[in-house]
Amino acid sequence: MALWSGRFSEDPSKEVSEFTESISFDKRLYKHDIAGSLAHVAALASIGIITSDEAEKISSGLREIESRIDSGNFEFTTRLEDIHMHVESALIELVGDIGAKLHTGRSRNDQVALDTRLYCRNAAEVVVAGLRKLQLALLSSAKKAGDAILPGLTHLKHAQPVLVAHHLLAYMEMFDRDISRLEDCVKRFNVMPLGSGALAGSSLPLDREKVAELLDFPAVSSNSMDSVASRDYLCELAACLAICVVNASRLAEDMTLWCSDEFGFAEFADAFCTGSSLMPQKKNPDVAELTRGKSARVIGDLTTLLTLCKGLPMAYNRDLQEDKEPIFDALDTTLKILSVLPSMLETMDINRVAMLGAASDPALMATDLAEELVRDGMPFRTAHHRVGALVGWCNANNTPLNKLTLQQARETIPEIAERHLGIFSPERSVKAKKTHGSTNPEEVRRQITEWERKLERIGATRSG
Ligand code: ARG
Known about the structure:
By secondary structure, the chain is mainly alpha-helical. The chain is 60% helix and 5% strand. Arginine (ARG) is lined by residues 22, 26, 81-82, 108-109, 112, 318, 320-321.
């Protein structure tokens, strides 16, 4: 018999139980469910609804159930819908009638709202720690790259030379924003919903503040209907995770390109690649590719959550049970990606010669030439146009920019001087950059030092 079966004359069929159960996936909330119940029981005792002796018996029963589940010594069955029912039934079995007092002043609607908040708060912390590890790996790769130069791309075409370290530090910024988004989103859902009941609150004088304090929530929720009905925090968390894995997938795409035979810029340790079952010569960057691929799941999870909430009437609706699998999957997938990406990056071996070779095409320095002409007083549009015409002449006459004679160059750009013809080196190009945040090696070194200080200040660790 179900715990809610008072007004029912028959049990649900096996098919209906299997259709409506959530235990197969919400059992992973057991620690949060029990932590919530322990706080609830303590608060019930503090207002005298149960005696301290009863509270002690219920609490030790709950702890016993937790250790049984921990050790795999607990039976889960679809005859009991969810984790809340499992814990409560086991408690009643264990401590007798006193156990039936646990659910006083509580509904599964506010209980599940509490459990998922506790779960997500913890999960966000774990993701942030994983992102910090990824940042440490990026930073160490950036330091190892030193002053290595590669062609920076726009539209996937050679644009201007940049430092490899500068390219990697771009991802430091992206993952730092992911962290700040996660930390910010936690602030909004870090409120304690218990005491909201099914939707209207409780006629018992529950001490919500005490529960909040015991579970380390800075505040209690303000509206009982919102507390049980809203899942915007899950959508927001999934959005933070989706953005984060999309950023990771861009890094993975760069790594995949760098490993390609066409680029030949980098290689990763064998442990992060796999071979082909047919072609003996292949070494494929599967970890990078699957990072790109798995990010699709998290985008799907976000879409599922948004679609789930769209058009739902107030307040709790059973549809909301479907919120768990997508948020669990989004978290699991993100954590899986973060468990391999940092160590893969640590093994990156860059081919400096190939990178520099690709960045040495003098056409990549065309912008530098235009900026030199601007320094001499030429309007930028004119300089851009003239250098473009010079590049056109070079292409038509099979002559690279750095092989032009002064006379040849002056036919297109009369203002050009001898010294302008000596600017076509990628090393000179990066050093010529002056702006804050540019690829100038001194600026990049300064940024590396700043990142080192920041990560040290917040105590980021590789093993964390
Ligand atoms: N299994 C449910 C869920 O995950 C718990 C809340 C059920 N509430 C109810 N009134 N049936 O949403």
